[in-house]
Write a structure and sequence with these properties.
The structure is a single chain. A three-stranded antiparallel β-sheet has the order 1-3-2. Strand 2 (81-99) and strand 3 form a beta hairpin. 28% of the residues lie in helices and 34% in strands. The radius of gyration is 18 Å and the shape is elongated. Helix 2 (41-49) packs antiparallel against helix 3 (56-72). It has a single domain (14-122), classed as Alpha-Beta Complex (Ribosomal Protein L22, Chain A). By secondary structure, it is of the alpha+beta class. It starts with 13 loop residues before the first strand and ends in a 10-residue tail after the last strand.
């Protein structure tokens, strides 16, 4: 059966989007994912738009996809969405070699990652206490 996990069932108040095999190391991608965890969707989108990190643009696309899934597939209110989860996982590692001095070679590893973003609709009365 392999390592692929079964997709878990989300409640009706949540929606998700997944990007697989992004060409960035999981460690760097997790730094960007940390920025948006727990933020309201609009605030998270703004943070990614103005981030200087190269990968933030792709993460914003995944967040936009999760927001669109919430709106179109689950009929959730976009203004009340919060990033509940931003999970980063390892993918494949391409192994390459770089020429070094004296006829030697050094190994270069090119890491790939997966990211899953889950957005949740806040309850009606929770707007006042939001971050």
């Amino acid at each position: 059966m392999g390592k692929q996990a079964h997709p878990r069932r989300l409640p009706d108040t949540e929606a998700q989007a997944i990007a697989r095999n992004i060409r960035v190391s999981p460690r760097k991608l997790n730094l960007v994912a940390e920025m948006i965890r727990g933020l309201p969707a609009a605030q998270a989108r703004a943070a990614l738009t103005f981030s200087k990190r190269r990968i933030a643009k792709q993460v914003r696309k995944v967040l936009d996809s999760a927001i669109a899934n919430a709106e179109n597939n689950h009929s959730l209110d976009v203004d009340r969405l919060v990033v509940r989860e931003a999970t980063v996982g390892r993918s494949v590692v391409m192994k390459r070699f770089q020429a070094r001095g004296r006829g030697r070679a050094a190994r270069v590893e090119k890491w790939f990652s997966h990211i899953t973003i889950v957005v949740r609709e806040r309850p009606q009365g929770a707007e006042q206490g939001a971050r």
